[in-house]
Specification:
Blueprint (H helix, E strand, L loop, with lengths): L10 E3 L7 H16 L5 H11 L11 H10 L1 E3 L12 E2 L1 E3 L9 E9 L2 E2 L4 E6 L3 E6 L5 E6 L5 E8 L3 E2 L1 E7 L1
Parallel strand pairs: 3-11
Antiparallel strand pairs: 1-2, 4-5, 5-6, 5-9, 7-8, 7-10, 10-12
Amino acid sequence: MTNPNGGALAYLGNTNVGLGAVGGTAQISSFFTAIFEHGLGLGDALNYSRDNFYTSEASLQSETLGVRWTQLAIVLFGDPEMPVYSRTPDQLILSAPATMARAEQCLEILVSQAGQAVAGATVALHREGDFIYRAYTNDEGKASFRLAPTTAGDIRVTATHTNAVPALGTIQVP
């Protein structure tokens, strides 16, 4: 943590009593499976490991108390909502109109990456003190919103996806 070039951003482990060699390593293995095979973030990966680690370890399947102890002994110190890159992230590209009128309309946002549409990306629209909307892109990389801005101001647009650097944009409502 004192390395000038980086350091830890989270801790996964026990806070006092150690873990057994079988249960503890099985849960930690399940945690990394959740991150690197399923693309889950820290908190979701911990919950996945708590739900799934004992199925891969035959000696734990009949030991309910030991399984529960292991599930609760391993804790996460860090932001559970933090996404984790399991490979070098690519930059998302956001295509949105620069402006939109003060009228009810359908707004389409296109999200791509390296020239390809991105399905399943999360697109959020935010206007301070007014609204926050969220939608997911379809197979063509499009997220659709129905909105009716009535006052002038900026709408912030954010697109996120697994293993991708988020894309940010602004739509002006004159």
